[in-house]
Amino acid sequence: LLRMADEAMYRAKRAEKDGLDPHAEELAAELGDAVRAGQLRVHYQPIATLPDGRIVGVEALVRWAHPVRGEVPPLSFIPLAEETGAIREIGAWVLEQACRQVAAWHAAGHSLHLAVNVSPRQLVPGLAERVFAVLDDSGLPYRDLIVEVTESVRVEDPVAVEELRKLHKRGIRIALDDFGTGYSTLRYLTALPVDILKIDRSFVAKLDGTPEGAAVAETVLRLSQMMHLETVAEGVESPGQAAELAGLGCVNAQGYHFARPMAADEVSDLLTEQNPASV
Ligand code: C2E
Ligand code: MG
Ligand code: MG
Ligand code: MG
Asked: Which residues contact 203 (CB under 8 A, 6 or more apart)?
């Protein structure tokens, strides 16, 4: 018993030193079953137009309702799922749920696009075909799906690039998430078939009415215009930030100022408020 306690202590200390969740190993083992056990949920965060705040899309964000630990945030389990490979099953499940949900909103008279996060480990042969199959099944039009990838996709990986090209060729849009936070940000723009840049919330947080504060957001917006890309500002938390972004010509935004990620029912209520003529 003592030895076990010792080991547990040692592991906890090491995990702390490495900046990992001390329960990482346990969580990783449980993750494999989380999908099958029905412990995952998809929440949706509205994406709005500036300056009026009209909802034009949603981003699907996975949630894990752990039976013992309560809600585990994605930042604690997505990296684990990427390590173990469970992200493929999780990603496939999220995509299916979200496509069905957004197709249902379409059927109720709301026009809306869907953004789904895709990890580098999901970009393997056959991914594009599986995405097409899910879209065909759900009836969601290809033009209404946005695949969000971060700069952790390796541009030297021909398979990843090829899968993204296949998606792009069929009209699915590719967004670079957290844009500007990676190591070779500008390289991604020519190496990947990009349609949308998402201005990382760290740059939105710097908006303070000064030219220096706006420098990065403004540069991303100009770059987007020159390359005929769309832009979405992430993490907009205040009316001041929304106004400043609108002034810089930013058309789409997402953040607590508009709405938090929420269950589908709550999004339905917002959509009905916005569009009372819907069924
Ligand atoms: P992300 O794709 O950049 O998603 C945006 C994150 O910012 C979400 O965190 C959202 O709740 C948060 N956020 C939105 N508005 C605001 C705001 O105004 N202020 C602040 N401080 N935060 C805001 P969340 O849901 O915790 O997800 C974190 C990350 O986990 C996501 O970042 C994404 O990288 C990953 N993730 C979530 N769901 C999935 C998924 O289904 N698949 C994959 N591969 N990754 C996912
Ligand atoms: Mg995202
Ligand atoms: Mg993001
Ligand atoms: Mg982000």
From this structure: 180, 216, 217, 220
Q: Which two tokens stand for residue 87?
A: 């992200």
Instruction: Name the closest-CA residue to atom 42, ligand 1.
Output: 117
**Binding pocket residue ranges, ligand 1, CB within 6 Å:** 45, 60-62, 73-75, 78, 87, 91, 94, 117-119, 148, 177-178, 201, 235-237, 254-256, 261
**Sign of the dihedral through C-alpha 192, 144, 228, 246:** negative
- Cα-based torsion angle of the residue sequence 164, 170, 172, 174 in order, rounded to the nearest 10 degrees: 30
Q: What is the Cα–Cα distance from 27 to 73, expressed in whole angstroms?
A: 12
Per-residue tokens: 233: 């500002």
pLDDT tens per residue across all 279 residues of the chain? 556 555 555 555 555 555 566 678 888 888 888 988 999 999 999 999 999 999 999 999 999 999 999 999 999 999 999 999 999 999 999 999 999 999 999 999 999 999 999 999 999 999 999 999 999 999 999 999 999 999 889 888 999 999 999 999 999 999 999 999 988 788 899 999 999 999 999 999 999 999 999 999 999 999 999 999 999 999 999 999 999 999 999 999 999 999 999 999 999 999 999 988 776
Q: Which of 159, 247, 251 is nearest to 198 (CA)?
A: 251
